[in-house]
Amino acid sequence: MFKVRHVLRNDDAGQSGGAPTNTPTSASQSGAGAPAPVVDVQAQINAALAQKDAEFAAELEKATGHKNIKSLTEAQLQAQGKLQELADAKAAEANTYKTKFEGAAISNALLAASSDAVDPATVKDLLAGKAKVDDAGNVTIDGKPVADAVKALLEAKPFLAKAQGGTGSGAPQNTAGGPQSKSRAEFEALDHTARSKFIAEGGKVV
Predict the structure, then answer these.
(1) How wide is the angle at C-alpha 73 spanned by C-alphas 67 and 75, nearest 5°?
(2) pTM of the model
(3) Domain ranges, ordered by start, for the chain
(4) Taking residues 33-46, what's their average pLDDT?
């Protein structure tokens, strides 16, 4: 701060005996030091954050091989996609194996139960679509054992069964004939596909 110093002096302009007057002198500056330097706090914070980011990036690259989170995330998403593809492929493979296993189990069960049929393969084709295989590998047809289902089919279509105790199919003779009727000899002369088609179209063996 500036201090005003008053100096008492006599008037030299011919005045005498007068009262002394106080005349202010020039002010002088004392005790004023140099201003403190200005500190940029935000710049220091930014520098510290940048250093931390650099240290984190170095540690991330060392641990994962990626320099930033974005690169790491993209790599993880790609890996997840590949894992999903692998899981889907394994699921498809397992489903294919299951389908083949169930098909073989149904086929074997029907053929084994069709010993009284003229053509066990035809019986298999007629009943396989209704068959189910449980977790234990047991085969059922419409909820019934395979042997019962085959027996019911042969009773409903006796011309599919082997003749019992004499010639003929075991079915009542159909003297009406017609395009949907065949003799047992004609039926047995058909190949497997033709037999299945004949039965599916409602053909009768007389």
Answers:
(1) 85
(2) 0.46
(3) 159-206
(4) 75
